[in-house]
């Protein structure tokens, strides 16, 4: 008999078929308590769980006594209670490599659109304002050869450093838990403490996961350290930044502009002050959202679940130590 799993994300047809050759699949829209209650038997017998973004906590796990593996269609897993999974020896699989290059592209898009005011200026053209040429009020600031500060030198930080170094001739500063030889040797990235990075960078790019240590790492004091001309980019997780402090910094001219793909609350509330600031480019958490990469992430998550439920945890497993 095939093991049962719960699928809480839409998948391309071929990947759904692949999943169905290995498992009996129950598809649900989300993991809300009412959904779980409605499919109580399926949750009670499921050995696997596949989807993204929803909270997987001890309350949900209590409804899934047979669960052996979870697979998220994302690199980030801050929505999972990893301690609770570990206590039950449930594997957590994620998709760390397939989205790296695409997210780095998105970060460069945020850097360029914030500095050159691409969105704002394009809107002015559409509004018919380009009637008799443009003046200095349409100008942006240069990106090439400016100093890029990268907070978090993981896979995405490295792909960003590559683009900035070879494509834009940008000197790179970085802060991370440890020195990164590849970043230093290939892209001449210079390791520095966080304060130095904030003070010396023209672009401050945050590519950190959300953990207890990174929550509100960047707040009022950090924005005050940045150059008044600095552009702040966040493509990691929203709560790494104290968003109220960011809004104040943007309003008070502590920093020049921000390019944001992630927010403390998502979707971003329509009354967020960020939406009325002209010096903000706000994207709807689309770092990895290309057809190719989202397919590759979904495929990776499907294969990860098949592997995990067959005891294969050599790659893409957050907690291989719980494998029996
Ligand atoms: C996904 C992400 O957009 O992988 C991540 O951690 O933030 C994004 O790539 C998101 O998790 C939805 O799948």
List the topology elements.
Layout: E1 4-7, H1 13-22, E2 24-27, H2 33-38, H3 40-45, E3 48-51, H4 58-62, E4 69-72, H5 82-87, E5 91-93, H6 100-116, H7 118-126, E6 148-151, H8 155-168, E7 172-175, H9 181-187, E8 190-191, H10 194-200, E9 203-206, H11 220-225, E10 231-234, H12 243-252, E11 257-260, E12 280-282, H13 291-309
Parallel strand pairs: 1-2, 1-3, 3-4, 4-5, 6-7, 6-9, 7-8, 9-10, 10-11, 11-12
The structure holds 2-keto-D-gluconic acid (8YV).
- Helix content percent band: 25-40%
Based on Cα principal axes, name the global outline: globular
Largest sheet: 7 strands, parallel
Report the strand count.
12
- This entry's quaternary arrangement is single chain
Radius of gyration: 22 Å
Separation, N- and C-terminal Cα atoms: 21 Å
Strand order of the largest sheet: 8-7-6-9-10-11-12
- Number of helical elements: 13
The helix-and-strand class reads alpha/beta
**Could you state the order of secondary-structure elements as H and E?**
EHEHHEHEHEHHEHEHEHEHEHEEH
Q: What number is the mean pLDDT? A: 97
Q: Which ligands appear in the coordinates?
A: 2-keto-D-gluconic acid
Which residues sit in consecutive blocks of at least 5 with pLDDT less than 50?
A: none
Strand content: 5-15%
């Amino acid at each position: 008999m095939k093991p049962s799993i719960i699928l809480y994300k839409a998948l391309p047809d071929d990947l759904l078929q692949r999943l169905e050759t290995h498992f009996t699949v129950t598809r649900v829209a989300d993991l809300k308590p009412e959904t779980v209650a409605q499919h109580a038997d399926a949750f009670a017998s499921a050995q696997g769980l596949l989807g993204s973004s929803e909270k997987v906590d001890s309350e949900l796990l209590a409804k899934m006594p047979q669960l052996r593996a979870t697979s998220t269609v994302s690199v980030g897993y801050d929505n999972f209670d990893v301690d609770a999974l570990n206590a039950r020896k449930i594997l957590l699989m994620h998709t760390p490599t397939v989205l790296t290059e695409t997210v780095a592209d998105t970060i460069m898009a945020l850097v360029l659109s914030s500095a050159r005011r691409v969105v704002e200026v394009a809107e002015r053209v559409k509004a018919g304002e380009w009637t008799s040429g443009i003046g200095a009020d349409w100008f942006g600031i240069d990106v090439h050869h400016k100093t890029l500060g990268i907070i978090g030198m993981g896979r995405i930080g490295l792909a960003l450093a590559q683009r900035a170094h070879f494509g834009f001739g940008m000197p790179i500063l970085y802060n991370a838990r440890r020195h990164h030889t590849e970043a230093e040797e290939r892209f001449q990235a210079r390791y520095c403490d966080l304060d130095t990075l904030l003070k010396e960078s023209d672009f401050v790019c945050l590519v950190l996961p959300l953990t207890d240590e990174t929550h509100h790492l960047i707040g009022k004091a950090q924005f005050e350290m940045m150059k008044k001309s600095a552009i702040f980019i966040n493509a990691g997780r929203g709560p790494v930044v104290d968003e109220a402090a960011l809004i104040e910094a943007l309003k008070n001219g502590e920093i020049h502009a921000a390019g944001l793909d992630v927010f403390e609350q998502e979707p971003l509330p329509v009354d967020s002050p960020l939406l009325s600031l002209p010096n903000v480019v706000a994207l709807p958490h689309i770092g990895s959202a290309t057809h190719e990469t989202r397919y590759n992430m979904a495929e990776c998550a499907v294969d990860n679940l098949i592997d995990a439920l067959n005891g294969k945890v050599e790659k893409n497993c957050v907690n291989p130590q719980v494998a029996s």
